[in-house]
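Final report, Chapter 2: Outcomes

The project's central promise was a pipeline that accepts a single protein chain and returns its three-dimensional structure in a standardized token representation, suitable for archiving and comparison. That pipeline is now operational. To close this chapter, we reproduce one record exactly as it appears in the project archive, with the input sequence first and the structure output second.
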Amino acid sequence: MPARRGDKWEGRLKVGGRVVGTRRFDTKRAAVEWERRQRTTVDEHNYDPSTRKIAVETLLAEWLEQREGRVSETTLKTDRFLLPTEGQLAGTSRSEPVLPLWFRKLQVGKVNANSIQKWQDDLGKRGLVATTVGRYRTSLSSFFSWCVAEGFIPRNPVASTPPPKDRRAREDMRPLPAPEFTNVVDEATALSPVCGDLVLVLGRTGLRWGELRAMQVRDFTETPMPMLHVIRNQPEGSALKAPKSGKTRKLPIPDYLVPVMRRFAAGKQPNELLFTSARGAMLYRTSFVRATNWEVTGRGRTLHDLRHTAACEWLILGVPLTTVQAWLGHGSIQITARYLHHLGDYADRAALDVLNKTAPKALTKRARKLPDLSSFGAGAASGHAASHSRGLSR
């Protein structure tokens, strides 16, 4: 039974008349519950907590059972990858288990920072990117935190191990210049009018693919101005959730896109999907890529490059950087500012046009009065320079 220790209750586990594990709680009830769970573990697995000789895979199964109903289905799905599937155990699956056999058989008390680091490095060698390894690491850390809470180990070994670093070369964004984007839209439209409209929408609204496929008819409004309300996101394979930034946003729609929006909304109820396939079904990347022959039509760009295309087009046309940030839903202006390095000659030409249109009239008149040196001979040019020099010396 728990013992009172100051303002705490100490749960005590005895094996063979010897106290082999203790933990203090705020309430007696919590201490009693902990003792019960520890005793159940001892009875079922013949486990001595003083030596912590229970295997990782044994506790993983118990942990997963307790996770059901307490975390989201998406989180639970990732957690379950820590144990091999039946196909992986039978050797009929092409994929390898996330936790290899040597790790699963480790005694939970012997898992240390070196074990975690080796596991992370091995996943990287198998070709898994840092973000994927990071998701599995989060699940494993939750498991070891539970082990600490249950008194199996004194500390979480994942916490003392640095997370994996993304050592991939950063892929440059490749926006499409306006003339080339027009050609892409025309070629996609020739293959599928609906897909052509989708390319136009992606390349001129900056919507993410998940935001596009989650948009509902009621999210498009025309009063007081044409507007898309971006309030949900549904990447393929994921549940419906908020946009990536976690915040909703409003996206004004130019007049030339309004007929496109009306075509997609025609005959649909407000709660139905706004952007759908030619058959009225939910959008899927593989179907879209196949219907448009995107590898050729898209000039080697990704669908996400259409978002970059929209951002660069806005900046070229003079939309303020802070407004582009709001339209794209970026969390910081630094992220949006990356586009300034990808505008190229089109931005230079647009900026030069602005300078030419806003040049002070006095400077323009003076420049027109100056002689054209290109039509002079070398002597005339030198004479002009000499007279200019005398004028300065005065």
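Archive annotation: Residues 1-51 form one domain.
This record, like all others produced under the grant, will remain available to the consortium after the project formally closes.
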